[in-house]
Amino acid sequence: MNQTKTAVDIFNKLATGYQDKFMDVSLYHDSLDVFCNSIKKEKPEILELACGPGNITKYLLEKRPDFKIIGTDLAPNMIELAKINNPTAKFEMMDCRAITSLTMKYDGILCGFGLPYLSKDEAIQFIKDASQKLSVNGILYISTMEDENSESGFKTGSTGDTMYQNFHQTDYLTKALEGNQLKIIHIERKEYFYNNEKTTDLIIMASK
Residue 123: which of 147, 109, 142, 103 has the closest Cα? Predict the structure, then answer.
């Protein structure tokens, strides 16, 4: 089974419902504010990965209208919703594992809950690739569900759809960040109930 294709197909099918449920990102306002405030440059170039319906994009632009955001996702229906929700931003289909194909560098890179769909090795490689695409003083924001990586597996959602979700551990994520010349500036955890189960959301930010 192609786990990425399965996840993309499900998110594509459920795009509108996902938008209805997750457009409000107020739970993460505090960490997103840290991201916005940490980028001192005016009119910075921002790359957002796994942007979904543009829920995080919308909040970022409310806080920092000067952000020049390009958002990416693999689900076409998510991209279309993101365009509607954020007419001043640009969006395109792209796999976050392919960011080294981009030619420019960014003042901020944000991947909100894209890591649950990357394996441990892919997440570590993503951090390495992202560090190469950050400008000097650039900020990387990643969020994921925290647990032992061995707890990763197929999860069935409220819609009955099943896809593979990866849990990640702080130790190897922070080691990967520091090993790629990124200085950790913020770590935060939030308790969240997902499918009637309590999960821990992990947010880490680092600067180049």
Answer: 142
What are the two backbone dihedrals, phi and then psi, of residue 122, each rounded to the nearest 5 degrees? -65, -35
**Cα(138)–Cα(81) distance, rounded to whole angstroms?**
28
Q: How far is CA 53 from CA 44, 58, 61, 153, in A?
A: 22, 9, 14, 25
Decide: pTM greater than 0.85. yes
| Each residue's pLDDT tens digit, 17-75 | 889 988 999 999 999 999 999 999 999 999 999 999 999 999 999 999 999 999 999 99
Residues 75, 18: contact at Cβ < 8 Å?
A: no
d(CA 107, CA 157): 35
**Residue 185 exposed, middle or buried by CB count within 10 Å (0-12, 13-18, 19+):** middle
DSSP 190: E
CA-to-CA separations, 159 to 109, 156, 180, 195, in angstroms, rounded: 31, 8, 39, 10
3-class DSSP state of 199? strand
Measure the CA–CA gap between 152 and 196, rounded to whole angstroms: 17
